[in-house]
Write a structure and sequence with these properties.
single chain; 116 residues; alpha+beta; Glutaredoxin; 4 helices; Arsenate_reductase-like; oxidoreductase
Length: 116
């Protein structure tokens, strides 16, 4: 059985709800606090692929302050968007649950059940 991981922000209610849902299912996931742990561009590209080849734009939180500061509204270059997420990790939508070659965004939390 593949290990389950969650890219988690303990200050985010959806992230906490998703983690609780996993635990209710008897799953003790590897918790990756992505605001603290190092991420690379390859890590984000891998997540995007596992999310179903989602674009970097779809993974960005547009309501974060850094989104406006960096003027990302009209940015379409994937590498620049990924770089922005690496420099300002709060821009990464959360939570993301990974199992094997698949991932799901926990919005709503129940969406992650598809890959378990």
């Amino acid at each position: 059985m593949s290990e389950v991981s969650i890219y988690h922000n303990p200050r985010c209610s959806k992230s906490r709800q998703t983690l609780a849902l996993l635990e209710e299912q008897g799953i003790q996931p590897r918790v990756i606090e992505y605001l603290k742990e190092s991420l690379t561009a390859d890590d984000i590209k891998d997540l995007l692929s596992k999310l179903g080849f989602m674009s970097a734009r779809e993974l960005i939180r547009s309501k974060e302050e850094a989104y406006n500061e960096l003027q990302l509204k009209d940015e379409h270059d994937e590498d620049r968007l990924i770089d922005a997420m690496l420099q300002h990790r709060k821009l990464i939508e959360r939570p993301i649950v990974v199992k094997g070659s698949q991932a799901r965004l926990g919005r709503p939390p129940e969406a992650v059940l598809e890959i378990l």
